[in-house]
């Protein structure tokens, strides 16, 4: 897609690095000058930091942009479940360690899908470090849950691991991942097949079905956190940019609008795109981020 950003973009590619935290190596992409305002990009499921490849380039001329892979995703280590705790609480804690290790003191959080429950945990625990919330199809309200997510929630709460494993196996299939990109897109001809091919490659490796089943089963803990996240929103009123793909079949548009209850000053933008809207609209999103942060940051 043609970059529609109205401000300078980086001409150099991202830098690819890895850092050891405990028993895992965390792979991450970074670009831009570390002295500039920092943006931490937290990816969703079934993606990795690869989903941010275009946005990183769009923002790197003006920001220090960092996008890690969680354990069990992308190029980061994927220890067996008996050697690593695959929960959202633990991943959020590990991302806090990652922030400290690379020196992110003040940061804006860009969160998509799984990045939401990880990022909201970090923000509510470290409110003084958060300069802004950049929320893209990352749900925090019951209104945003599509019927199939409500059904999955019932399986999680029932602890039906057999049914959850079957569901995750379907979600990790090549055809289902591909459909998430194409069926929700306003312009499917603009979606590179590299996106779903990359996701499927990473998650089809031996042992990954077990890892993703355990983490997906833990997703029910996020619903229990909603009230505490809302309390954080109301108390601290962090500057918030809410960007949503209206064709998302997982997290519905009412979930985007619900943020305004607790963050009435948030900037809300509904785009004609899907769950992975950066594949079509990364330039538009980069411009929205730049315009927003220019007004919000000191």
Task: Provide the descriptors you would attach to this structure in a database record.
298 residues, Rossmann fold, eight-stranded mixed sheet, 8 strands, 16% strand, disordered N terminus, hydrolase, Alpha/beta hydrolase, Epox_hydrolase-like, AB_hydrolase_fold
Describe the structure.
- An eight-stranded mixed β-sheet has the order 1-2-4-3-5-6-7-8, sandwiched between helices.
- Helix 1 links the parallel strand 3 and strand 4.
- It has one domain (15-296): Alpha/Beta hydrolase fold, catalytic domain (Rossmann fold), CATH 3.40.50.1820.
- Helix 5 (161-171) packs across helix 8 (208-217).
- The protein is built from twelve helices and eight strands.
- It has helices at residues 53-59, 88-102, 115-125, 147-158, 161-171, 174-182, 193-203, 208-217, 220-236, 253-257, 259-262, 278-296; strands at residues 15-21, 24-31, 38-42, 64-68, 107-112, 130-136, 240-245, 267-271.
- Residues 37-281 form the AB hydrolase-1 domain.
- GO terms for molecular function: hydrolase activity.
- This is Alpha/beta hydrolase.
- Keywords: Hydrolase.
Q: Which CATH architecture would you pick?
A: 3-Layer(aba) Sandwich
Radius of gyration: 18 Å
Q: Would you state the CATH class?
A: Alpha Beta
Biggest beta sheet attributes: 8 strands, mixed
Write down the CATH topology.
Answer: Rossmann fold
Termini separation comes to 32 Å
Q: Which structural class do you get from the secondary structure elements?
A: alpha/beta
Q: Name the helicity range.
A: 40-55%
Query: Number of domains in the coordinates?
Result: 1
Q: pLDDT average, as an integer?
A: 94
Low-confidence stretches: 1-5
Give the strand order of the largest sheet, numbering strands 1, 2, ... along the chain. 1-2-4-3-5-6-7-8
Number of strands: 8
Q: DSSP strand (E) fraction? A: 15-25%
Tally the helices: 12
- Shape call: globular
């Amino acid at each position: 897609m043609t970059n529609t950003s109205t401000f300078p973009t980086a001409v150099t590619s991202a830098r690819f690095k890895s850092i050891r935290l405990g028993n895992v190596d965390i792979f991450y992409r970074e670009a831009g000058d570390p002295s500039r305002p920092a943006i931490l990009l937290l990816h969703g499921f079934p993606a990795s930091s690869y989903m941010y490849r275009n946005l990183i380039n769009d923002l790197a001329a003006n920001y220090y942009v960092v996008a890690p892979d969680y354990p069990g995703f992308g190029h980061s280590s994927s220890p067996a479940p008996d050697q690593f705790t695959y929960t959202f609480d633990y991943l959020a804690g590990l991302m806090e360690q990652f922030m400290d290790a690379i020196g992110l003191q003040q940061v804006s959080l860009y969160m998509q899908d799984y990045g939401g429950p990880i990022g909201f945990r970090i923000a509510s625990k470290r409110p003084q470090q958060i300069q802004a919330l950049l929320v893209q199809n990352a749900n925090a309200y019951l209104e945003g849950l599509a019927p199939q997510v409500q059904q999955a929630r019932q399986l999680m709460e029932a602890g039906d691991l057999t049914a959850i494993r079957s569901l995750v196996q379907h979600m990790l299939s090549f055809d289902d991942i591909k459909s998430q990109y194409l069926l929700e897109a306003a312009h499917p001809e603009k979606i590179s097949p590299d996106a779903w091919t990359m996701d499927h490659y990473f998650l089809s490796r031996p042992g990954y079905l077990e890892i993703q089943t355990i983490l997906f089963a833990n997703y029910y803990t996020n619903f229990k956190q909603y009230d505490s996240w809302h309390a954080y929103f109301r108390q601290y009123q962090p500057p918030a940019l809410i960007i949503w793909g209206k064709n998302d079949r997982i997290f519905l548009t009412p979930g985007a609008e619900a943020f305004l209850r607790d963050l009435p000053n948030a900037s809300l933008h509904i785009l004609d795109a899907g769950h992975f809207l950066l594949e079509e609209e990364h330039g538009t999103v980069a411009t929205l981020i730049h315009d927003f942060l220019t007004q919000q940051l000191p």
